Amino acid sequence: MPLLGELVKGVIHATDWVLPERNPIAEQEQVLKELLEKGRATEFGKRYKFDKILNSGNVKRTFVNTVPFFDYHKIDKEWWHRQHATSATDVTWPGDPNYYALSSGTTGKTSKRIPVTDAMIKAIQKAGIKQVLALRNFDLPPDFFEKGILMLGSSTDLVEQKNHLEGEISGISASNIPSWFRGYYKPGEQIAQIDDWDERVAKIVKEAPNWDIGALSGIPSWMELMLKEVIDAHNLENIHEIWPNLQVYTSGGVAFGPYEKSFNALMGKPITIIDTYLASEGFIAFQSRPETDAMQLITDNGIYFEFVPFDEDAIKEDGSLSENATALSLEEVKKDRDYVLVMSTVAGAWRYMIGDTIEFTDVERAEIRITGRTKFFLNTVGSQLSVNKLNNAVHHLEQKFDVQIPEYTLCAKKYEDGFYHSWYLGTEADVPLEKLSSSLDDFLKEANKNYKVARGKALQGVKVHTIHPEVFHEWSAEHKKKGGQVKMERVMGENKFAEWEDFLGKF
Question: In the UniProt record, which is one GO cellular component term (predicted)?
């Protein structure tokens, strides 16, 4: 019997006796007060009178009425640029950030520099411990807690700029892993520092037989590519032939649904999938129980959340928030409706829109799902389709035709006879395009009343094209960078879509 595994599992289960019962609403009120107290002496805190907010009769309401919304471009132009350009201190958070997270996401641009303070690093580590403690709910065997954890993120070889370091958030987090965790961490510090994705994967492939991996963590698309490389290089049928003790995959950054079928095809037996929500701005949520794939907001750990109902009055055409948009606190939200996520954090982000939309699946537990991006809601002709609904439609195709479609993108494109939703599905399957188009159209009509109404007016129909999934990875490699936090844009504007179709001419 693995004594260390029994010990670790025993400690995790013992936390049932010492952890207080959660009260997300009260936790959020306390976090807001702590953030304001810490930020009151900064330039931002003085400008927006944090002292006055703290001394008011209603801190939450006064905060909302005093501090405006920010997105990256606004807060960087007005505040953050002085930190990374001139090393100004006490701007939006005490001191000067030691790190900046370079965020490309689905935009393809790496110009965003999001401050990551020591307080945020500690908050991310604390959230990681919370997630480990939540493993008690998944009934994993003791020997799981003795196996390696392969974290496939961006390079930990951070770039030095004046008095701070820059890199993607996964690389920053991995470079700050606690000392007690290093014995479990793979691929290890030397391989993790390799910047070139293909070279790093080649090293992982070479070392794979020497590791006893129990868990994987990373973006699904890049994780799949790495697993395929290991399988092909060692002439395996599935990844469990080389890592027989693999039991958990911690996904993150994007919805796992579109990748589920193709990912499971690489396995030799079922494993536990646990979703996480780590953004450049902080560790936001993680799946805490196996009964649901929703994630629990981390409400007591350096982030104060607000939720703006996603509707036409709240969102401008460019995806930013209207100044008069209504922001709700946790006790005011309702289940099963889309909200724009707004955050204030220990990294000096204040009422900051990160660009994601979420829905609550359980308000009392503060459990959410990511439903899309504010800029990537497909609403050109009133169809009002979130990425979550698009993912459901693709999953429907996978089930109906018994195929794998791990990647896709689309655009509301204008043709001579009107607008069509033009889809590119990443699949190796050979299914008649007419059947795919008809099935997509019928499913969306049934699942979304706005889409059905749009189909009776300006939206003429659906056009479907199929391409090899590898093409999506080549697009990412050419326009951004392989691996790390890079994600494929699910919905494109017409200009970007024209670039995409020109790119496809190479294949």
Answer: cytoplasm
* Beta-bridge mates of residue 459: 419
pTM (2 d.p.): 0.81
Residue spans of alpha helices (H) in 182-317: 189-192, 197-207, 220-233, 260-264
Q: Are residues 154 and 246 in the same domain?
A: yes
Residue 5 is assigned to a structural domain of this protein:
no
Question: If DSSP states are collapsed to H, E and C, what string results for 155-194?
Answer: CCCCEEECCEEEECHHHHHHCCCCHHHCCCEECCHHHHCC
Section 456-463 average pLDDT: 85
Q: Which residue's structure tokens are 């919905």?
A: 491
Amino acid, res. 145? F
Res. 444: pLDDT tops 80: yes
Question: Can you give the pLDDT at residue 1?
Answer: 36
Distance separating alpha carbons of residues 314 and 42, to the nearest angstrom: 29
Contact 261, 404 (CB under 8 A): yes
Q: Is the pLDDT of residue 315 over 60?
A: yes
Alpha helices in 385-480 (DSSP H): 387-401, 433-447, 449-455, 470-479
Residue 8 lies in a domain: no
Give the three-state DSSP class for 492. Answer: coil
